[in-house]
Amino acid sequence: MTSTIVTDSFLQKVLEASTQTKEQCTQLIDFAEANAVSASHTTPHDIQLEISKRQKLLYSYLAQLRGLNRNAILQVRGTKQSTAEARQEIDRLHLQLQNLYYEERHLRGEIVACESYDHKFQQLPLISIDDFLDLQPEHAADDEKSLMFARINHELSEREALEQARQGLLKKKQSLIAENKKRKDDLANLDKDLETFID
User: Fold this and answer.
1) Which of 147, 145, 8 is nearest to 72 (CA)?
2) How far apart are CA 71 and CA 134, in angstroms?
3) CB contact at 8 A, 31 and 51
4) How far apart are the C-alpha atoms of 112 and 67, rounded to whole Å?
5) What is the rounded distance in angstroms from the CA atom of residue 12 to the CA atom of residue 88?
6) Cα–Cα distance between 192 and 188 in angstroms, integer?
7) Segment 26-29 long-range contacts (CB within 8 Å, at least 24 positions apart)
8) Distance separating alpha carbons of residues 55 and 51, to the nearest angstrom
9) Does the pLDDT at position 1 exceed 70?
10) CB–CB of 18/45 below 8 Å?
11) For residue range 43-101, what is the model confidence (pLDDT) as tens digits?
C-alpha cells in the first residue's frame, strides 16, 4: 500500500531500508528469545557470535537509515530553499504585474481626461470648413489636424487685420476729437470776442 502512495525513488529507498531494519530487528529479537538461556547458564559461543553478527548487520542498516534520513533532510532544506527563491521571484513578478496594472489604469484615466478636455480652440468662432475651403482651396487635401491649424492661422490673420483697422480708426477718432475740441475752443473764443466787441 505504501509503495503506491510513495512514488519518489529516494523515498522508496528510505522505505526499503526502514523495512529491512525493522525485519532485522525483529529477527534479532526472535533469535535471542529462541536461544534464551537462563541467567545462571552462559550462552554458547556460537550463539553469541550469531547474535553479534546480527547486531552488526542491524547497526549497518541503522547507519544506512540515518544516512538516508540525513540526505532526506538535506533534500528537504534544498527544496525549501528553492521553493522560497521561486516564491520570491513569483512575488516580485506579481508586484511588477500589479504595478503595470496600476500604471495602465492611471494612463487610461489620463487618456480619458485628455480626450474629454474642453480645448479653447474648439470654442473659437471660426468660419465653417466649407467657407474656409472656398477661400483657400489649397488646404482641401489636408488632414483634420492640419486643416484646424490652417483655420486657426486664418482666423489669427483676420483678427490681426481687424485689430490694425481698429487701431487706425481709433487714431482717426482721436484726431477728430482733438480737431472738434480745437474748433469748439475757437468758437468759444469767437463768442467772447464777439461779446467784447458788442459791449
Assistant:
1) 8
2) 91
3) yes
4) 67
5) 31
6) 6
7) 27/54, 28/54, 28/55, 28/58
8) 6
9) no
10) no
11) 677 888 888 888 898 899 899 989 988 998 998 899 999 999 999 999 999 999 999 99
Chain centroid to CA 185: how far? Answer: 81
- What one-character DSSP code corresponds to residue 119? -
Place of cell 508586484: 95
Q: How far is CA 13 from CA 20, 64, 76, 93, 132, in A?
A: 10, 10, 16, 38, 91
| Phi, psi of 169, rounded to the nearest 5 degrees | -65, -35
> pLDDT tens across 169-183, in order?
999 999 999 999 998
Length reported for the chain: 199
Q: What is the mean pLDDT of residues 116-123?
A: 74
> Amino acid identity of 124?
L
Question: Which pLDDT belongs to residue 190?
Answer: 81
DSSP secondary structure code for residue 40 in this structure: T
Assign residue 126 a region (left: φ > 0; alpha: ψ between -120 and 50; beta: otherwise): beta
Give pTM, 2 decimals.
0.45
DSSP for 127-169?
PPHHHHHHH-GGGTT--HHHHHHHHHHHHHHHHHHHHHHHHHH
By the 8 A CB rule, do 3 and 37 touch? no
Report pLDDT digits (tens) over 27-47.
888 888 887 754 445 567 788
